[in-house]
Amino acid sequence: MTLSQAVAIKVRKLLKERNMTEYQLEQSSGIAHSTMSCFLNGRYKSCNLTTIVLIIRVFGMTVGEFFTDELFESEDLIVE
After folding, report:
1. Domain count, the chain
2. Are residues 77 and 3 in contact, defined by beta-carbon separation less than 8 angstroms?
3. DSSP secondary structure string, 15-73?
4. Quick check: is 80 in a domain?
5. pTM here?
């Protein structure tokens, strides 16, 4: 799994836990629909840290809290 895929999975998990839609996340973060769609559907091969931080802020989390997940602990995580 790539880092981008792991981040997308984590964001989708948080959306579900908080009963939020992608649209609500886009509006709250200020991220354009096309960017969010590409990001969550794996069309981007790399993660932009600015985009990740904007998303994390909507969830009221710190960067550390976001990345404290078994998704990011695998030694096989591919960083592109």
Report:
1. 1
2. yes
3. HHHTT--HHHHHHHHT--HHHHHHHHTT--SS--HHHHHHHHHHTT--HHHHH-SGGGT
4. no
5. 0.89
In a domain, 8, yes or no: yes
Does residue 41 belong to any structural domain of this protein? Answer: yes
What's the pLDDT tens digit per position in 29-71?
999 998 898 888 877 777 788 989 999 999 999 999 999 998 8
Question: Which amino acid is located at 57 in the chain?
Answer: R
> How high is the pLDDT of residue 9?
93
Domain around 36: 3-72
In a domain, 10, yes or no: yes
Tokens of 9: 């999975």
Residue whose token pair is 């990345």: 67
Query: What SS3 state is found at 78?
Result: strand
CATH number at residue 33: 1.10.260.40
pLDDT at 75: 81
Within 10 angstroms of residue 56's Cβ, the number of other Cβ atoms is 21
